[in-house]
Amino acid sequence: MPPDGGTAMRFGALVRKEALQVVRDPSSILIAFVLPLILLFLFGYGISLDATRTRIGLVIEEVNPLTSDLAASFQGSPYFSVQTGRDRREFEEELVLARVRGIIVIPADFTTEYAAAERPGVQVIVDGSDPNTAAFVLNYAQGAVSNWQRQRGSDIAVNLPPIQVEQRFWFNPELTSRNFLVPGSIAIIMTLVGTLLTSLVVAREWERGTMEAIMATPVSAVELLAGKILPYFLLALASMTLCVVVAVGLFGVPFRGSMVALYFLSAVFLVPALGQGLLISAATKNQFLASQLALITAFLPSFLLSGFLFEINSMPQVIQWLTYLVPAGYLIPCLQTVFLAGDIWPMFAQSAIAMLVIGAVFFTLAARSTRKRIA
Known about the structure:
- The chain is built from 15 helices and four strands.
- By secondary structure, the protein is mainly alpha-helical.
């Protein structure tokens, strides 16, 4: 049945009260607009998975035209920042102190073995404390040597089968990590903004005693929760819009999807985010405790267990099961798809259903907790 006039008036009054509180409270504006910009700049400029200009030490034990030509292939690579020397001991301490990530050694017998049509060796010593960077150095070093062989038309390269590999990278041809990190960071920011804002604001009502005053009115638990959610729902969407404008305009991230898909996914995601914030505030009734729980139960799982930085398939099986409970794990691949590939609605529909189910659980628990206090 449609709401009667009294219900509509009560709901409108609640929404108006919350909207005025948002305008008068500078902390809400700070969390909604200033904090997202800070985080977006940190994610956009501070986090990069692109292995470019990795520092290495290049040891040329015998300098001659052949070894100098091979050394030039490393020095001309965009992936290396090269320091040269004549003895590997010059770089051992640098490797221990992580000032270089690897040592490439062109041995003294390289020219002799090359002239004898043997397979000359180049030694690659890497810092294994960082496995990802070590793998990058090894692979790029092998690629530099292979390119040098092809350019010289050496016997080793001539004897290889004449197979030409043509590479095509869909959606992100430049393989720029920022293009998928920035859309993913928007989901992390929305998690923090939605959950933290709601948990702090409602907990503040409990601390100041104004929640008891609201409970003395004929307002129901559903009206109370809906009236508090709507202004922050719109505020979170405005925060998301600001992040998208910065991502496209400043960071140059391509946007190939539609605004309809973007706002649909964002609106659906705010259901579990805001619901979790309401549940935290109803359970704690304390701003400090609510903020800590919001960070621990919303921000950290979204950052660590959503696939934003760490591959979910490489996690233990038990942890993989837990990732299904993290709403950001559904939003991040959808946002990356909207930005880089376009609209794929079957994928969006599956993720939206999962987020709505999680949100329904949060809102149900929050409504029951609030109803007990009203009763």
